[in-house]
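Why Small subunit ribosomal protein S1? Reviewers of the renewal asked for a concrete example.
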Amino acid sequence: MEILRAVRVGDIVSGTITQVGRPHGAAVRLDGWLGLASADIGPLDVSWCRLPDEVIQVGRRVTAEVIDVDEERGRIGLSLAATENPELWAFLKGLRPGEVLGGEVADVQRFGVFVALDDGPPHPVYPGVGFISIPELSWRHFDEVSEVVEVGQRVTCSVLCFDTYQGEARLSLRALQPDPFQGFADAAREGQEFCGTVTKLVPFGVFVRVVEGIEGLVPLDELGSMPIETEQVVQVGDRVKVTIISLDRDARRLLLSRKKAGSDPLPP
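Here is what the prediction returned.
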C-alpha cells in the first residue's frame, strides 16, 4: 500500500477509535490521508497504569505512537502507552540489549526483583522501571530470592529487552557473571566419575550436585539395575557415585548415571 511508505515507526499520529475489540484492542481511523490505511491498538499497547475500559471507547480521540508498519497487510500498529508515558517510553526505547545499567533493588517478590535505575524515570505503577526475573538473578541454584539480593542493594545489570507490555526494562544480573556450567564443561567429559550429593528427589529421578554450583539429573532408569521408586534408593543429602552420560553446553544440561558408576566405596 503506497500510503504506508510515508509512515515510520516512531511517528506520532492522531485519530478516532471506531471499534473496540476483545480482548480490549481497538481499531482507529487516523486523521487526514492516513485514514485510508487500517490502524489498530493491540490489547497489550493500551496502557501501563489504567484499565482498558478507562482508556478506549468508540468515538474517543487518541494520540498514539506508530510501533509497526505492515505493508503487506496494509496495517499500522499503534501504542497509546507510548504517549501516555512519553518520558518513560523514550527512555526504554533508547535502551539496547547488552547495555549495562546500575540501580538499587526497590522491591523483592517471589516472581522477580524490581530495580530503580539510576538514570531512568520512575514507573507509574511499579517500584522500579527495571525488572529481573528469577532465572536471570543467578547461574547458581537458590531457594529464596533473598539469598541473591535484598531491598536497598546496589546492582549492575545487563539489558535484555524493552517489555512494551509492562513498560519496563527486562534485566539480567547473571549475564554479567561467569557461567559456572561452561567452566565445568571445559574440563568434564562423558564417562567421568564424581562423588556427589543428592539435592532433590523428583518423580523422574534425582538431582545430584557434583561440584559447587553444578547439578545434574540421574534419570530413574539410571538409578539402579531394576525398576524402583526414588525413595527406595536415595534420600536428599546422601553421597552417591555418578558418571556423566551426557553434557549439553547450550541447554546447560547434565545427565548422570548411578548404575554405570564404579563400585569403589565412597570417601568418608
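The chain has three domains: 2-84, 88-176, 180-257. This is the kind of structural detail the renewal will allow us to pursue systematically.
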